[in-house]
Amino acid sequence: MNILFPFFSFGFTVILIMLAGEERDISSTVVDGEEVGSGEKRIDKNEEIKMKETKEEGDRDDNEYIPLSMEEFEELLIADRCGDGAKDVIRSMKTRTCEAHIDLKSKRLGVNAGKAIGDALFENDIVETLNIGDVLMGGNSIGDEGVTVLAAALKYNHKLKTLNISCNGIKNDGAVALGEALKVNDTLETLGLFWNKIGGPGGRAIGEALALNKALQLINLTDNNLGNEGAIGFATGLRSNSTFQILYLEGNKIGDEGAEKLGEMLSENNGLTWVTLDRNKVSNEGAGHLRKGLKRNKTMKSIYVLKNKLKEDEKKRMEALLGKHASLEQVGV
């Protein structure tokens, strides 16, 4: 579906995220004139997330992340391949001298930079929007290690509202860590994750977390190979969630089984307004389940099932929902 990613204002910024080959910027601090560093060196002492066993009671888990000292942070950051301009912005996040809107897209951020960003966010109460997404493979790549530290920060950060970590080489482990963070995070409203390699189990972890999350309103998981398992996770998590509104599942190899569960979810959900299922493997059977769910749904405004396996008769039945549904305004088949 070649459609502009919607512009939504949640009272703090106008959110622009890239979809279908078109770039959506998040207004932010811009790093100008940055020189890109040459290769990245890993640091053994920071290869694993710094954890500790604790018996203290309170908000933190028994295995809690300990924010790095400034010396450790500098060592981690210096070892990354990204340029000095990007490092200065990340450093300002750690020292809490940064702007509220940070744009680090396409800055060749590596794993160490991803860890440093996560560490900086742990106690940061300034940053509201953070864009470390990319538009090309080989640009930013914080991977599972970087996003796992970022996820640890999200459990305790109460300021960040918009996060774009698209096209960063995130796989199952990173997605599972994000799912755990979303269960307790109470401020993040928009999450961009398109063009990663999350897969079914990771997608399911994120989706099921939405049963507990009451803040997130939009997620973009375009082209993540989620399959039916990932779709089922979202169907489970969104069944009783009335806060979440916009779901992008384009290009995820979702078939009729996933569409059936999503249809069942739509019959009970009272919050969703927009679902995109373009470029999947849904046939007439799966579309029938979506139609059945839409007939009982009272909030959906737009659903897209373009470039699937629907035949002309089912496309007509889907289009016939327009005018009969209380809120439905767009059906793309």
Please give a structural write-up:
The chain has 10 helices and 13 strands. The protein is α/β, with parallel strands linked by helices. The strands form 3 sheets. It has a 9-stranded parallel sheet with strand order 5-6-7-8-9-10-11-12-13, with no helix packed on it. The protein has a two-stranded antiparallel sheet with strand order 1-2. The protein has a two-stranded antiparallel sheet with strand order 3-4. Helix 2 packs parallel to helix 3 and helix 8 (256-266) packs parallel to helix 9 (284-296). Mean pLDDT is 85; it is low at 1-58.
Biggest pleated sheet: 9 strands, parallel
H and E order: EEEEHHEHEHEHEHEHEHEHEHE
Unreliable segments of 5+ consecutive residues: 1-58
- The best one-word shape is elongated
Strand order of the largest sheet: 5-6-7-8-9-10-11-12-13
Topology:
Elements: E1 8-9, E2 14-15, E3 51-53, E4 63-65, H1 70-78, H2 84-94, E5 101-103, H3 111-121, E6 129-131, H4 143-154, E7 162-164, H5 172-182, E8 190-192, H6 199-209, E9 218-220, H7 227-238, E10 246-248, H8 256-266, E11 274-276, H9 284-296, E12 302-304, H10 312-319, E13 330-332
Parallel strand pairs: 5-6, 6-7, 7-8, 8-9, 9-10, 10-11, 11-12, 12-13
Antiparallel strand pairs: 1-2, 3-4
Helix pairs in contact: 1-2, 2-3, 3-4, 4-5, 5-6, 6-7, 7-8, 8-9, 9-10
